[in-house]
Amino acid sequence: MTAQIIALLLFVGVFALATLRKVHLGVIMFAAAAGVGLGLAGMTLPEVIGGFPVSLLVLLVGVTYFFGIAQANGTVDRIIERAIRLVGDRAALLPLAFFVLTAGISAMGSPLAGLVMAPVGMPLAKKYGIDRMLMGLAIGSGLSAGAFAPTSLFGIVTYGTAHSVNIDLNPLVLFAVAVGANLLLLAAAYFMFGGFALFRRNGAGNGVGTAGRGGLVPEDLPALSAAKPAPQHPFEREGHAYQSRHAVTSGIQTLEDPQLREPALPRMSGVQVATVLCMLGLIASVIVLAALGMSPDIGVLCFAFGTVLTLIDPSTGKTAVSKIDWSTVLMVGGIITFVGVLEHMGAVDLLGEAASNVGTPLAAAFVICLIGGLISAFASTTGMLAALVPLAIPLVSSGDIAGWAVIAALGVCSSIVDVSPFSTVGATLVATVDEEERPRMNRLLTRWGLSMVIVGPVLLVGTLVLPTMF
């Protein structure tokens, strides 16, 4: 038992060391896994390396490559333009529109890519008299919802890790749980931060901002152009300019002629149309295969559709290689490799015995979801998912509660706290409002994010885990 406890302490210590020293978690986690495996577990080096999750590597690389092409060829920009034009001047619908847009972008492999909407949405909220907290929570909730899509990082890590330890979690069910939970939180934000008053204002015929019937107008656009993300953002393509009667920057139009009130949107190129068709094909393939009772390998499907797009436009295919999320592959791989060593040593079973002392399985599930949310509010959500999903196995080994329900609850609980200003998402939301508004945003996001540490487990354990016990 001493060796198992030492290994668990080293596992926690590596997390703490990586956080304090701001080094890549995957690098030292993989090295520590080798050291513990060889020194404490009596494993051979091939046995340690055998724990590296190759299937997750294929998923992450395939997904980020495919959607990297969609970003590089401007398809994502075109989708954003058309979505914002459809909303027009209906201020009450803008937070919902940004929820959907952010979820869509977040579903394209990298959840944090959805943050491209923050510097667009916050100035737009100010222009239309929308509480910046409502817009910020709409963006944050959309990011969390899309992140659990079968094609995005949190979803891949959660259901991929669950499957690696023989927990049957349907990726579409996980996605549906995340969307449902975040829509409920968005409804609460509408209620708390004046969203429903916007509907009454629009219904009374009061204009909002200066938008016209066709959507954003010239007066609105300069502020959005000035708020565009920095050039290094993955959705920004340096040196690329669209040839039309108006310029487009990061998906937001800026008019050359200030007299034009409703500029025509640029038409999609042939490559962009092909990309949209491939996106629809990917979604349809996943749904059809799942409906037929098969387990679709999303990574392989993304490589297949990515190959089609690469052959159509080799230059964007080459650019997309640099967008592959190797950093996350290494981090998740290192964590899961170490967890494999812990399983080999019996340390995971030891945790199961400790969890049984918490009380009922329901209480244990609540505690682990609470721990996941609390730590994730200050640390890497991806790291928490990769570490806690395997360690939650003992909670479901008795069969008293459904494994899929516990893992889905744990995943979403670890994500909805990310609007805390202590995380990347919350910090970005604070940074994209005017300086005088930042203290209020920081205060309210802190309260909201930390309240989710309790609200998340209560909501998700109550609605997912509790019913499986009867």
Structural write-up:
With 470 residues, the chain is an all-alpha fold. Helices cover 67% and strands 1% of the residues. The chain has 23 helices and two strands. The protein has helices spanning 2-21, 25-39, 45-49, 54-72, 75-87, 94-106, 118-127, 132-147, 153-164, 171-192, 195-203, 221-226, 270-291, 298-312, 314-321, 326-345, 347-356, 361-376, 381-391, 393-396, 403-415, 424-431, 438-465; strands at residues 247-249, 252-254. Strands 1-2 form a two-stranded antiparallel ribbon. α4 runs antiparallel to α9, α5 (75-87) runs antiparallel to α6 and α22 packs antiparallel against α23. The longest helix has 28 residues, at 438-465. The radius of gyration is 23 Å and the shape is globular. It holds the Pfam family MatC_N. It comes from Leucobacter albus. This is SLC13 family permease. The chain crosses the membrane at residues 26-45, 52-72, 92-122, 134-160, 172-193, 271-292, 298-317, 324-342, 362-389, 401-425, 445-466. Keywords: Membrane, Transmembrane, Transmembrane helix.
SSE topology sketch:
Elements: H1 2-21, H2 25-39, H3 45-49, H4 54-72, H5 75-87, H6 94-106, H7 118-127, H8 132-147, H9 153-164, H10 171-192, H11 195-203, H12 221-226, E1 247-249, E2 252-254, H13 270-291, H14 298-312, H15 314-321, H16 326-345, H17 347-356, H18 361-376, H19 381-391, H20 393-396, H21 403-415, H22 424-431, H23 438-465
Antiparallel strand pairs: 1-2
Helix pairs in contact: 1-2, 1-16, 2-16, 4-9, 4-14, 4-15, 4-16, 5-6, 6-8, 7-8, 8-10, 9-19, 9-21, 10-21, 13-14, 14-15, 16-19, 18-19, 18-21, 18-23, 19-21, 21-23, 22-23
